[in-house]
């Protein structure tokens, strides 16, 4: 069996593709070795184990999401920024379901601090500056937005909205309108 030019980056990208095809939970070093038609042992010089591989996929997904988010937010503010940012998450989850699941992986504090996760929080806070929120309301709003985006996307990708009218896009637009209204009229403590 040939080594086929294996690197940690190539294995991570192949693992991310596999996650999108078969689900993040199904990604293992053994499954990846079968995909490359190599012995499992030949991958261990590039990744420590399946958990290391999954962490690498999670970091890749967070980076991809952050890059898309930054591009979508450029030059936008207020509801336009909120909608663009929300659509990044929804579109990414629909295009890359396994990677999106990987982005939810719980990382150890040191790895999390070095990841693109911080960029996500910074971008969300940048959106919220357009709504004039101060602490601790800004933190509450960051958590609200993350919960709504993730909850909606998770239900939608699981087929939860496919059995009734109106279609999911109409509901998504209404959800974003409601979030914008809520943020503009954030309740006083």
From TrEMBL:
UniProt-listed SUPFAM superfamilies: Homeodomain-like, Tetracyclin repressor-like, C-terminal domain
Organism field: Streptomyces polygonati
InterPro entries on file: Homeodomain-like_sf, HTH_TetR, MT1864/Rv1816-like_C, Tet_transcr_reg_TetR-rel_C_sf
DNA-binding region(s) from the entry: 28-47
Keyword hit for Transmembrane: no
Keywords for the protein's UniProt record, in alphabetical order: DNA-binding, Transcription, Transcription regulation
Pfam families registered for this protein in UniProt: TetR_C_33 (PF13305), TetR_N (PF00440)
Residue ranges constituting the HTH tetR-type domain according to the UniProt record: 5-65
Name used for this protein in its record: TetR/AcrR family transcriptional regulator
Coiled-coil ranges from the UniProt annotation: none
């Amino acid at each position: 069996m040939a080594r086929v030019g294996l690197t940690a980056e190539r294995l991570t990208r192949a693992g991310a593709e596999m996650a999108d095809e078969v689900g993040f939970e199904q990604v293992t070093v053994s499954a990846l070795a079968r995909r490359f038609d190599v012995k499992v042992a030949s991958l261990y010089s590039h990744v420590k184990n399946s958990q290391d591989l999954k962490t690498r996929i999670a970091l890749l997904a967070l980076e991809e999401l952050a890059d898309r988010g930054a591009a979508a937010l450029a030059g936008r503010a207020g509801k336009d920024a909120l909608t663009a940012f929300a659509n990044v998450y929804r579109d990414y989850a629909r295009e890359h379901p396994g990677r999106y699941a990987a982005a939810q992986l719980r990382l150890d504090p040191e790895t999390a601090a070095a990841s693109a996760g911080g960029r996500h929080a910074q971008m969300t806070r940048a959106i919220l500056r357009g709504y004039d929120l101060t602490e601790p309301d800004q933190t509450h709003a960051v958590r609200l937005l993350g919960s709504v985006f993730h909850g909606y996307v998770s239900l939608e990708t699981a087929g939860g909205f496919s059995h009734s009218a109106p279609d999911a896009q109409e509901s998504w637009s209404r959800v974003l309108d409601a979030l914008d209204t809520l943020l503009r009229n954030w309740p006083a403590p």
